[in-house]
Amino acid sequence: MVNSFTYVAWVGNDGVGRVKTYWIDGKSATGIHPTSENITFVRCKSENGIITFEFTRPLNPSCTGKVECKNIIDPTTPLKVVWAMGASWSGDDLTDSNMHSVTSSRPIRVLLLRGSAEAEQDLRPVLAVHGFMMFVAWGILLPGGIMAARYLKSLKGDGWFQIHVYLQYSGIAIMFLGVLFAAAELRGFFVSSVHVKFGVLALLLAVLQPLNAKFRPSKPANGEVPSHNRIMWEYLHVITGRSAVIVGIVALFTGMKHLGHRYDSENVEELTWALMLWVLSVIVVVLCLEYKEVKRRIGDRSARGHWVLGNTEEEDSVDLLHPDGAARNSESSATGVMEVQLEPLTR
Q: Residue 140's pLDDT band (boundaries 50, 70, 90)?
C-alpha cells in the first residue's frame, strides 16, 4: 500500500531469519525505503513453507525528523493490516524481482484493546441506507424547515409555519429511522467514534426542538411588547435549531470519513466532495435569500417612515374600503373620535 509502513521477514541463504521495516511511497522497487525503526525481540522462522515472525516496537516512537517517527499507533483505533508474499527478498539493492506476487484480497482490522482481528467487509447496504437517510434529514428537510421559518414569513397566512413544522417532524422521523437501521445492522449502539458522538449530539439537539415548542409562551398581539419569556424562548429555539443543523452536517462529514476508514471504499472521496458541493450550494442560496430579506425589511421600514398620522397598529395591506373598515369608521363616529389617516404620496 502506498504511503504506509511495511514489515518484511525472510530467511537468508545462511538460514538466519531477518525482519526489517520499510516506508512505501511508490508502486515500484524505487518507492520502498528502509527505515531505522527500533524493533526488538525479533523472531523469524520457516517451517513447511510457512514463514512466521514476531517483533516488539514502541507505540509512540521517541524521535523526531525521520519518517519512522510518524509511525504512531493508537491502541483505540483499529489497525489495517495487509499481507503479501514474494519469491525472494534481500533487504539490499531492491529490484522489481523482489516485489510480491500474492497479496491479501482485503485488509485485516486488528483491534489491539480487544486482542482480536477481523477481515474488512464491503460496505453493507443497510449502512448505505443509513447514510442516505441522514443526508435527507440533515441535508434537506431540517435545513429546509429552518429556511421556511426564516424567509417565508412575508407570505400571507401561516403557510410558512405549516411548512416549517412538517419539514422538521419529517426530518426527525427519518433521522430516527436511520439510527435504528445502523444500530440493527451493527448489532449495537457504541458511542466510540467521533461520528457517533457528533450524531448523538445532533440527535439530542433535534429532539429538544419539538419539546421546547410545546412550552413556547403565547405570541403577543399586534402592538403589544413581547414578554421576556417569549424573547428568551425565541432565542433558545433559534440557537438550538441552527446548532443542531451545524452539528448534523459535521456528523455527515465524519460519517463519510468513518466509512472510508472502515471499508476503504474508493467512492467515499467522491461522495465527500459531492457533499461539500451540496453544502456550499445551500450556503450560497441562504446568502442570497438573506440579502433579499434584508432589502425587504429596509424597504418596509422606509415605507412606514412616510406615514405622518394614522393607526400605526394596522397593517399596510389593510383595505380602507373593506366593510370592516366601514364598521370601524362608524364606531369611531359614534364615540365622537375622528381618525385621520394619510397615505404616502407617489411621485
A: very high
Cβ pair 171, 142 in contact under 8 A: yes
Listed in sequence order, the residues at least 6 apart from 48 whose beta carbon sits closer than 8 Å to its beta carbon are: none
Question: Which has the higher per-residue pLDDT, 300 or 183?
Answer: 183
Q: What is the pLDDT of residue 124?
A: 65
Neighbours of 15 (CB within 10 A): 7
Calculate the alpha carbon distances from 132 to 125, 139, 164, 175, 206 in Å: 11, 10, 22, 10, 18
Given a contact cutoff of 8 angstroms between Cβ atoms, the answer to whether 51 and 64 are in contact is no
Q: Which domains does the chain have, with CATH numbers?
A: 4-84+104-119 (no CATH), 123-218+226-298 (1.20.120.1770)
- Chain centroid to CA 304: how far? 43
Q: Look up residue 67 and give its three cell numbers.
A: 519518517
Dihedral sign of CA atoms 141, 143, 144, 150 in order: positive
Cβ neighbours of residue 90 under 8 Å, at least 6 residues apart? Answer: 12, 98
